[in-house]
Structures are given as structure tokens and as C-alpha cells.
Amino acid sequence: MGISIFNSPFSIVNHRLMGGGVVHLVSAKNTRRLEGPDMIVLHYTAGTSAESSALFLTRPDVSASAHVVIGREGEVFQLVPFNIEAWHAGKSWYAGRGGLNRYSIGIELDNLGKLRFSGGLFIAECGRVVPPGEVYTDCSGDRPTYWHRYTTRQVRVLREVCSLLEETYPIRDVVGHSVITPRKIDPGPALEYAFSEFQDKN
């Protein structure tokens, strides 16, 4: 996922993402130190907007959080500094290690996730109807499945942020949530497609 970050608006100062209009929120529930994170785990929010998902994840009564949320227009919210553990991986396992919150940076992408097709409409889990132009159809299985597309601006920002993290921390792996636990399906096949589409255009 390495790309040149020479023209990136972002930088990392004291474990915080700066520039590019990043909005900093506070997730006071997260206090445990995270030393030398070496993984990035990608998720989708399945929420209605980047801001609402970011605010939800900072709530003290919610047992989940993430370091960063990236919106569909490329907007970025940072909830937890990169040297503090966020609660995004849950029960997880990868390359012989479990409990991956202790080793990883969690990035949430504003995306409605897997969709169901009903009555001629593509419907998200939250009940929102998704226009056909925002639907990715995955035909790799026995039957087609439908997913909310990621945007080009979102993927560009994700790549810039991941490249910067790779420059700053000893990152060895960038994986989807579904890779580290069978309980999850995010970020889904639409992200892989979005990456390939982005590379074709750049």
C-alpha cells in the first residue's frame, strides 16, 4: 500500500494526524498505551455518516472505538492517538498472535457495508436505500452479493494515511477485519475493487 506522501496534506505529530482538515475528538475511555503498533486493521462503519459513527465510537457506554474514521468525501476524524490502544479488533487472531488491539491501528471507513436486494431496492442494514450507482456487485461466490461502494476520495485519503503510518511506525501488515476474525465481513470486497480501480486511474 506504499505510495509517495510527498504531496500529502497529512503529517503525524505526537501520535496525532495533522493537516488535511482532520477533526480531533476525545475517546476518554481509551487509556492503555500502545507501543510500536505493527498492524493496520481496516473496517467499515455500517453507519449513516462518518461524523455520527465517530461520535458514536467515542461514547463512554460503547465498548468499541477506533483510531481514525475516514468519510466518503475524504474527511478525517481522529478519536484515539496512535500510541493509545483502541477497541476495534475484538476477539482476533493473526500470524500466531491474539488480542490484536494491543498491536494494531484501527481505521474505520464510512460505508454502509453489505446490502440486501429487496423489492428492486438495495437496502443497508440500517434501513437506508442505496442508489444503484453506489452498489458494487461481487460475483465471486455461488450467487451475487451487493455492497456499498467506497469513493475515490476516500480511497486516496486511506492510502495517504496508511503510507504515513507505515513511515512512522513499524507497520508490517494491513489487513481487513474479516481476516482476523470469522465473526466479521468488513471491509468487504468493494474495498479491494476500489483499490484496483484507483490504481487503474493513477
In short:
It is built from 4 helices and 15 strands. It is α/β, with parallel strands linked by helices. The strands form 4 sheets. The protein has a 6-stranded mixed sheet, sandwiched between helices.
Structure description:
The structure is a single chain. The protein is α/β, with parallel strands linked by helices. Helices cover 21% and strands 26% of the residues. The strands form 4 sheets. It has a 6-stranded mixed β-sheet, sandwiched between helices. The longest helix is centred in the C-terminal third of the chain and has 17 residues. It is globular and about 50 Å long. The protein starts with 10 loop residues before the first strand and ends with a helix. The N terminus is likely disordered.
Secondary structure topology:
Layout: E1 11-13, E2 16-18, E3 23-24, E4 39-44, H1 50-58, E5 68-70, E6 76-78, E7 93-94, E8 97-98, E9 104-109, E10 114-118, E11 121-124, E12 129-130, E13 135-138, E14 145-148, H2 152-168, E15 173-176, H3 177-180, H4 189-201
Parallel strand pairs: 3-6, 4-9, 4-15, 5-9
Antiparallel strand pairs: 1-2, 5-6, 7-8, 10-11, 10-14, 11-12, 13-14
Shape descriptor: globular
As laid out across the biggest beta sheet, the strand order is 3-6-5-9-4-15
Q: Uncertain regions: pLDDT < 50 for 5+ in a row?
A: 1-5
- Mean pLDDT, to the nearest integer, reads 95
Oligomer: single chain
Helicity range: 10-25%
The DSSP helix count reads 4
Number of strands: 15
Radius of gyration over all CA atoms, rounded:
16 Å
How much strand content do the residues show?
A: 25-35%
How far do the termini sit from each other? 14 Å
Structural class, from secondary structure content?
A: alpha/beta
One letter per element, helices H and strands E, the order comes to EEEEHEEEEEEEEEEHEHH
Largest sheet: 6 strands, mixed
